[in-house]
Design brief:
TIM Barrel; eight-stranded parallel β-barrel; Lyase, Ornithine Decarboxylase, Chain A, domain 1; alpha/beta; 2 domains
C-alpha cells in the first residue's frame, strides 16, 4: 500500500489528476490465481478491457499470462506487449469482417463465437482465405449473476452468447465443417461477482453440454470459465479463490480440458489509485461540495454504475487565499459533502454524502481501487485531457502514459472551412 508521503511526491512530480498502479499488487493477484488452479492445466487470460495500458500488459506477459480481448485492437495491443499468440482469445458480439480476417491472419488461440450468424460469417471468411478457423462458442447459461444489471451477461435477455440448445447445434455444424475447428467452450455471466453459487451452477450446465458433445465426437480442448470475480470497494465480502477453483474443478471430474480463466478487475482493480487535487470547497445553503480536479471523464464508474470507491484525504494546507470574515461560513471541521468534478454535468461526481474534513485548495483526495475500468473508460469529454499513468515497481515510479496536451485533443480533426 502506497504511503501518504509517496502520493504527495507523485502529485508534485507528475501533477494531478493522476492514475497510479502498484505492480507488486498486480503480481500478487496473478500468483493467487495460479496457486488456486495449480492442480490442473490452466491459462490465466487477463481481460484486457479492465486496463489495457501497454506496460501493464508487458508486465503480465512476464508473469506468463494470456489475454482475453474484445476488439481486434485489443488483440494487437496484446501481441505488441509480448503476449504469446497461442494465449490470446478474441471475444465480443460485434466482430466485423475485417476484424475476423485479421484475427485469422494473426493465428491466435481461438475466436469466441456469439451467434449462429457469426459462425457462418467466420466459416465463409475462413473458406475464402483457405484457412481452418479455431473457434469456441460462448454459451449463455441463463443464470442470474446477482450483480449490477449493466454488467450482467449470463441471462437470456442479455446480448451475449447463445442458449444451450443453439450451442449444441452450432458445435455439430462446426464439427462437420472443413473450415471450422471447435476446440473450446466459454461462459461468462457477469462482472463484479460476489457470490460463488451462480458460477458453479453455470459450470454444471456447461459441463453437461460438454459430455453430450463428447458423445457426438466433438473433441474440445479448452473450457473458458470467464472472469468477473469482484473486489471489495468497501465492506463487500469477496469470493475466495481457493473455493472458486475447487468449485469449478469439482464440476470437471473426468474431463481432460485446459481451464481458461479471464480475470480483469480481480487482477488490477485494487492495484490502482486516482490522485486528485482539491480546487475549492463550496456551500449551497445546506449542501456542501468538495470540488476536485478529477471528473467523470477520468472515472465514470460512480456516474455510470452508482459505484462506490473508498476515498482518502491528505491535507497539505497549501492555500494562500485568505477568506474575508464576511464570507466565512460555519461549516464544521468535519461534515458530509459531495465530492464533485469540474465537468458541466450534475452526474459528475466521485462520491456523495461522505464524511470529509474541511479541505483547502491543493489538498489531495485519493480515490482507491480504480485500477480496473478507470482509465480504460476515460474520455476527453469537455475537451479535458486524459490523465497520466504511473507504475510503481520495486518502490520506483515510472511514467507509463503521458498526460494529454492540446495537440493530442485536436490531432485527428480536419478543418474543412
Amino acid at each position: 500500500m502506497l504511503t501518504k508521503e509517496k502520493f504527495i511526491e507523485l502529485s508534485q512530480k507528475y501533477s494531478t489528476p493522476l492514475y497510479v498502479y502498484d505492480f507488486d499488487i498486480i503480481k500478487d493477484n496473478v500468483n493467487a490465481f495460479k496457486k488456486a488452479f495449480c492442480a490442473r492445466k490452466s491459462i490465466i487470460c487477463y481481460a484486457l478491457k479492465a486496463n489495457s495500458n501497454l506496460s501493464v500488459l508487458k508486465y503480465l506477459s512476464l508473469l506468463d499470462c494470456g489475454c482475453d480481448c474484445v476488439s481486434i485492437n485489443e488483440v494487437k495491443r496484446a501481441i505488441l506487449a509480448g503476449i504469446p499468440k497461442y494465449k490470446i482469445i478474441y471475444s465480443g458480439v460485434g466482430k466485423s469482417e475485417s476484424d475476423i480476417k485479421e484475427a485469422l491472419n494473426l493465428d491466435i488461440l481461438f475466436i469466441n463465437l456469439e451467434s449462429i450468424e457469426e459462425m457462418l460469417k467466420v466459416e465463409q471468411i475462413a473458406k475464402d482465405m483457405n484457412k481452418e478457423a479455431r473457434i469456441s462458442i460462448r454459451v449463455n447459461p441463463n443464470i442470474d449473476a446477482k450483480t449490477h444489471p449493466y454488467i450482467s451477461t449470463g441471462l437470456k435477455e442479455n446480448k451475449f452468447g447463445v442458449d444451450l440448445d443453439s450451442a449444441k447445434k452450432m458445435y455439430i455444424y462446426a464439427n462437420n465443417s472443413k473450415y471450422l475447428l471447435p476446440i473450446g467452450i466459454h461462459f461468462h455471466i457477469g462482472s463484479q461477482l460476489l457470490e460463488l453459487e451462480p458460477l458453479i451452477l453455470s459450470a454444471k450446465k456447461v459441463v453437461e453440454l460438454i459430455w453430450g458433445l463428447l458423445a457426438l465426437k466433438v473433441d474440445l480442448k479448452f473450457i473458458d470459465i470467464g472472469g468477473g470475480l469482484g473486489i471489495s470497494y468497501g465492506n463487500e465480502e469477496i469470493i475466495d479463490l481457493y473455493s472458486y477453483a475447487q468449485g469449478i474443478l469439482s464440476t470437471l471430474s473426468g474431463l481432460d480440458l485446459t481451464i481458461i480463466c479471464e480475470p480483469g478487475r480481480r487482477i488490477v482493480g485494487n492495484a490502482g489509485s486516482l490522485v486528485s487535487s482539491v480546487l475549492y470547497e463550496k456551500q449551497n445553503e445546506n449542501k456542501r461540495f468538495c470540488i476536485i480536479d478529477a471528473a467523470m471523464n477520468d472515472l465514470i464508474r460512480p456516474s455510470l454504475y452508482s459505484a462506490n470507491h473508498r476515498v482518502e484525504f491528505i491535507k497539505l494546507a497549501l492555500t494562500n487565499i485568505e477568506i474575508p470574515p464576511l464570507l466565512l461560513d460555519s461549516t464544521p471541521l468535519h461534515s458530509r459533502a459531495d465530492i464533485v468534478g469540474p465537468i458541466c454535468e450534475s452526474g459528475d461526481y466521485i462520491a456523495k454524502n461522505v464524511e470529509i474534513p474541511r479541505m483547502n485548495s491543493g489538498d489531495l483526495v485519493i480515490i482507491r481501487d480504480v485500477g480496473a475500468y478507470g482509465f480504460s473508460m476515460s474520455s476527453n469529454y469537455n475537451s479535458r485531457f486524459k490523465c497520466a499513468e504511473v507504475a510503481i515497481i520495486d518502490s520506483k515510479d515510472r511514467l507509463i502514459r503521458k498526460r494529454d496536451d492540446f495537440n493530442d485533443l485536436i490531432s485527428n480533426e480536419i478543418e474543412f472551412l
